[in-house]
Each structure stands twice: as structure tokens, then as C-alpha cells.
Specification:
- By secondary structure, the chain is of the alpha/beta class.
- The chain has a single domain, classed as Rossmann fold (3-Layer(aba) Sandwich).
- The chain has 10 helices and 11 strands.
- The chain has a 6-stranded parallel beta sheet with strand order 2-1-3-4-5-9, sandwiched between helices.
- The radius of gyration is 20 Å and the shape is globular.
Length: 321
């Protein structure tokens, strides 16, 4: 790919991941970066999506727009998570094909893997069972976009690739407790408890499940590298190569935040899948990606960003009187 000759459409460009992908793209100096807001192009509307693609005529589409959230949000709105993620991807890929797009990058999720997948998760295990029930609708919707990409490649020669991402975190993440993932939720809970002098924080589950996390800058770099270098039909895992128990993660974040109280685990709440860790060798071979940001460093950076953001919010509220 020659970036200087490529017009790149990034869906979800104003979101957490999208902003970092746009920053990474700018360093490659493409001919143009198209970043429409939902009001300009609602991807759930097939006609609006096709009209936008027909007019914009991008060469490359990087599809990041998604309905995402933690276990609570997935359990509360499974139909929304399934429908919106499926329809946005399906309609966008078809509109891209019709508009002559030459490269389509779709983001999948570790949630698409079966609940009983052996660790580390290998791409060949993707179809060996049903996903973990708490986020199966989301995982299956994303999985169908892999099916679509492979079908379009087989029938139309359409160059669509599919990346299976672990949870991303970092500056600019969403800290809404109703919809955020585990790292921003923990940062907010411990920060608020520290500031209020609370003696304890209660967290969901047992703390024993393990997860893998990837700093958003590493994730953005992986997405752009794959767009440039990978053209295969097979999905590719993208992760940070470190597995950590949620209990250990919570203690680490509490230490960074400065919360010294008790951590209580509510075992009546679900744990989700017990272990998640990707085999990332294919990404290294296929497009030369390896994670660079260490988890502790990334968490300190994210905590510092959150504190600064909260200070700006408080200063704004005070100045408004």
C-alpha cells in the first residue's frame, strides 16, 4: 500500500480507539483521512452508508465503530450488542465492495472465542465451540463479520482482513461505570473511593479469572500495520502477550491510584470466561507486530490521564460557579 495515494475512511474515528488510529495514520501521511460522525453517516442505515461510500470513494476502510462494554452492559443489552455490531459491519462491508474499496480492515474480538478454548487461544480454535454466555451475542456478531470477509474474498476477490483484539486500554478510555471495560472501571472506582476516604471497594466476581490487555497505542499501530502489510483470509490475533488475574490487576491499579482500603469480591456476580490469553505469533509473522508498552507503564499513564481529566472537569465546574 502507498499511503500517500490512499484515501482512508475510519469509522468510529472520534471514539477511544479511533482517535489513536487516526493519530497513527497521520504519521503515515495518507492522501486523506475521512472521519465522519454518526450524524453524517449512521452505519446502521444501509442507504445512508452506501450513499456516503459512493460519494467519499475511499481506497481503504478501517472499521472501528462498535457497540462495546463490560459484562454488565452486555448482560443488560444483548440484543443491542448483537444487532448493532452485526448490521454496522455487514452494511459497511457491502457498501465498501460496491464503492470499489481496495482494502477493508475489520476488528473482531477475543470474545468470539469459545468458552472452553485452550490457553493460549490460537486462531484455529475459533470455531471449536460457543462463546462465553455473558458476551456471546457481541462475540458472535463480530464473528459473522469474519465469515462475511472470507465469503467476499472467495466470491468477489475483496481484500477484507479480520483482527481478533484483546481488551484495549489507555488515555482517552471510557470511564462510565455502566459501559466501561475492567481497567477504566477499576481506575474510577479506586480513585473515587480514595478521594472519599472509603474503607473498601466491592468488585464483581472472585478475582480469579485472567485477562490480557493491550495499550491502545500498540493496538492502533497493529491495525495500521495490518492494513498495510496483511492480505490474508485467516483471522489474526492481536494482543499484549501477558496474562494477569483480575485480582492482581485490581491490586496493581489500587496501588497506582493510592487506594489503601480493603478490596471485597462479590462472588454472587459473574466472573465471565475464566482465562483469556492469545497466541500472537501469527501477527508477528504476518505483519511484524509486537506489543511495546508494558502493562504497569500503561496503567500509570492511564491513571495520570484520568486524574488530569477529572481536574479539568472540576476546574470547569468551579469556574462556571
Amino acid at each position: 500500500m502507498v499511503w500517500s495515494k490512499s484515501r482512508v475512511l475510519v469509522t468510529g474515528a472520534t471514539g477511544f480507539v479511533g482517535r489513536h488510529v487516526v493519530t497513527e495514520l497521520r504519521s503515515r501521511q495518507p492522501a486523506e483521512i475521512l472521519a465522519p460522525a454518526r450524524e453524517v453517516c449512521d452505519l446502521r442505515d444501509a442507504n445512508a452508508t452506501r450513499a456516503f461510500l459512493n460519494e467519499a470513494r475511499p481506497d481503504v476502510v478501517i472499521h472501528l465503530a462498535a457497540r462495546v462494554g463490560g459484562i454488565g452492559a452486555n448482560r443488560a443489552s444483548p440484543a443491542t450488542f448483537f444487532y448493532e455490531n452485526a448490521v454496522m459491519g455487514i452494511e459497511l462491508m457491502e457498501a465498501s465492495r460496491l464503492a470499489g474499496v481496495t482494502k477493508f480492515v475489520g476488528l473482531g474480538t477475543v470474545c468470539s472465542y469459545p468458552a472452553s478454548t485452550p490457553v493460549p487461544f490460537r486462531e484455529d480454535d475459533l470455531w471449536n465451540g460457543y462463546p462465553e454466555p455473558t458476551n456471546a451475542p457481541y462475540g458472535l456478531a463480530k464473528k459473522m463479520l469474519l465469515v462475511q470477509a472470507q465469503a467476499y474474498r472467495a466470491q468477489y476477490g475483496f481484500d477484507a482482513i479480520h483482527l481478533l483484539m484483546v481488551n484495549l486500554y489507555g488515555p482517552g478510555d471510557r470511564f462510565d461505570l455502566e459501559s466501561s471495560h475492567v481497567i477504566p472501571a477499576l481506575i474510577r472506582k479506586f480513585s473515587e473511593a480514595r478521594d472519599a476516604g472509603e474503607p473498601r471497594v466491592t468488585l464483581w466476581g472472585s478475582g480469579t479469572p485472567t485477562r490480557e490487555f493491550l495499550h491502545v497505542r500498540d493496538g492502533a499501530r497493529a491495525i495500521v500495520l495490518a492494513a498495510q502489510r496483511y492480505g490474508g483470509a485467516e483471522p489474526v490475533n492481536v494482543g499484549g502477550s501477558r496474562e494477569i488475574a483480575i485480582r492482581d490487576l485490581a491490586e496493581l491499579i489500587a496501588s497506582i491510584v493510592g487506594f489503601e482500603g480493603e478490596i471485597v469480591w462479590d462472588r454472587a456476580k459473574p466472573d465471565g470466561q475464566m482465562r483469556r490469553k492469545l497466541d500472537v505469533e501469527r501477527a508477528k509473522r504476518a505483519f511484524g507486530f509486537e506489543a511495546e508498552v508494558e502493562l504497569e507503564d500503561g496503567l500509570r499513564e492511564t491513571v495520570a490521564w484520568y486524574r488530569a481529566a477529572m481536574e479539568r472537569v472540576e476546574a470547569g465546574a468551579f469556574s462556571r460557579g
